[in-house]
Batch of 2 targets.
Target 1
Amino acid sequence: MTGRRDGSLMRNSANSIRGSRIAIAIGIGVFIGCVFAFCFPHGIFDPNSQIQAQRNFKNSIQVGSASCESSERVNILKKELFSASEKNSELKKQVRELTEKLRLADQGRDQAQKQFLVLGEQHKAGPFGTVKGLRTNPTVVPDESVNPRLAKILEKVAVRNELIIALANANVKEMLEVWFSNIKKAGITNYLVVALDEDIESFCTSKGVPVYKRDHDEGFDSIARTGGNHAVSGLKFRILREFLQLGYSVLLSDVDIVYLQNPFDHIYRDSDVESMSDGHNNMTAYGYNDVFDEPSMGWSRYAHTMRIWVFNSGFFYIRPTLPSIELLDRVAARLSRENAWDQAVFNEELFYPSHPGYDGLHASRRTMDFYKFMNSKVLFKTVRKDAKLSKLMPVIVHVNYHPDKLPRMKAVVEFYVNGKQDALKPFPDGSEW
Ligand SMILES: *[C@@H]1O[C@H](CO)[C@@H](O)[C@H](O)[C@H]1NC(C)=O
């Protein structure tokens, strides 16, 4: 009997230490529970279960402090004690979970607050089928202080706050001439050449072509003059940024493009980036489900993938929004760090989702009609051989798939502008290396 009594006393004191730990744990649990009850009145945590747990603890402590009358009573006590310690670890687990939830909620609130700052008023979702997410982001407030000289030029050149721009140095002079001649012929007035050297600047001036040459700034001149394709491409994204900061939408254009109609009559303007595609049919241009087959997996041998041919970074329309400017910055930053192809980087930044260790860009995107904004593969592989398709007038033709750019550009002009039916015939579908 004595032994039992002593044992029960020891258990008693152990119990009271445990009890105080439990009380602390309960305290933390109750506190975080209150925080959550306040933040999420109906979710995440049920306060009733906590109250119930508290009651059970009180009961078990009362039972423990009562004198031991029988072994039966001790057994009950043991059971209570066991269930109390179980509840204790359960509570600890809940505290851990709640701490994590609190952290996530904090994160969520930050994001939500940012969204709210950007998007303003909150709305209830409407009925089925009527709900539409934002794809047309608000434009930034124009900031003339970024480049007052350019702002003056754009005031004169832009029409409805938009214009075509192309970067050019002396290496592409001949193509540039075909480029602006056809722009003029198509009746387009809002275009601007960003001259990368004095030769191009004076050439444009002599031809009555709107031109802008940047002031001498660090690194720019040497890259512009001597830089390879990739280095110049990186520049493009930095220069473009100023146009957007000044509040203009830009149709960025390579010079190996023939204009046949005014592209501004064929643009949707609903997305941050609207781009021509390197794709050659509905699937490749607009996206499709590409099934990957792994027979050893048996029942689940087919894995579905998403594929789309890349956006062409040589012809895209970009609206002056925060995601657009973020895109330009991300691409420019990566091109300055990596020796990468600007078009690959442009597409990766546009399309890869957020994942562990990476915050994806959330820009809205639209693929242009690949028959209106036609790449040279579509023209030479498909369109020129198709009686119906060859009668349709594209908006532009981009000789991006062929290295013999100048003769193909001239042939495109002959075919579409001068109506020479066999102008495209001498050329092979692809290049002959
Ligand atoms: C491609 O898509 C267009 C419009 O989405 C459709 O009219 C046309 O029939 C499609 N062409 C083919 C070959 O499926």
Note: Residues 1-15, 43-68 have pLDDT under 50 and may be disordered.
Target 2
Amino acid sequence: MLNLDFHPSGRHFLQIPGPSPVPDRILRAMSLPTIDHRGPEFGALGLELLGKIKRVFKTENPVIIYPASGTGAWEAALSNTLSPGDRVLMFETGHFATLWQKMARRLGLEPEFIGLPGDEGWRHGVQADMIEARLREDRDHGIKAVCVVHNETSTGVTSDIAAVRRAIDAAGHPALLLVDTISGLASADYRHDEWGVDVTVSGSQKGLMLPPGISFNAVSDKAIEASRHNAMPKSFWAWDEILEANRNGYWPYTPSTNLLYGLNEALDMLLEEGMEQVFARHQRWAAGVRTAVEAWGLEVQCQDPAVYSPVLTGVVMPEGVDADAIRRIIYQRFDLSLGTGLGKAQGKMFRIGHLGDCNDLTLIATLGGCEAGMKLAGVELKGSGVAAALEYFAEHPLKGDA
Ligand SMILES: *Cc1c(COP(=O)(O)O)cnc(C)c1O
């Protein structure tokens, strides 16, 4: 049994960078009765949401939806486009880029993992010039795909995907461009078609504000063409049968009916607000949170202001302070969940999620929990981050704020 007694009163603060809090409006939509996934109502729902989701990916092409976590959609992207033994160029931005690279290896691909030296890679975004230089050397076009993470959730760094596209084109290289925006979609600006992405991978539990459980592949014509000839065995992940059934709003197997109710509602919420306003809201929260970190006298993990993540902020602890011990205090005392340091960053930082169904006050409370927790643990802070963020939010109203 889940120990609900632990949460004595009020709401749990789920401030990890995914899953993000699920709005009541989405929970209500998901609570409707499960219907026949081959019946007429379902087909109408399927067509409606398959149409609307394209607007969030900014694509005219189909978006494939899987009943799987984001990891499944990673595998789908690789197994639909590549063949065993293919070389793929991947860029080390953090833990998630590393995991995708491990998956490529397990699938029989030959990933070449490049990045900045030492710990620098985990504090900066993808370096498009390094990709261009590597592709220029690859004169026989042995590299079949370039794989990058748009919003690196382990560090709080967002990469410039348009620059990666330009790098591939400048090198005159035919490699496919595969992008993971599992945590970027619907929080950070993303343009599948305009940026010339061949497969975009995303998931439900981050910017889309849904519970975990569904994930996505947006595709280009070139990617679909590759899927007709590639030699990687694929069945569950194969696009062809899904695209065929999707024409009429159905799936070849039982889809996650209630999560799709939630997705339809989430798409309405996002499109009613307008994607530009959604992005502005996230940028503003991120800036407020960074103002707090600066006031504490601490460092953010991202070292390049041009690519600060609007989705989450990695807060680096002073030398000798165990970030996970602080997270535990904050969880136990304030019922507030923060993201742990992943992989190489374990124990060195915690991550504050500021995505989806938040508002200024949930973030002020979150910063309050961080500030109080660090003080309890004896971390010396230069000043009050909470006060600094309050001031930032007051001085930077969002369009439409009174
Ligand atoms: C969350 C996340 C994943 C993994 O998704 P799951 O739903 O946990 O399988 C992969 N990449 C990035 C960038 C993520 O944020």
Note: The chain has two domains: 4-21+275-395, 24-271.
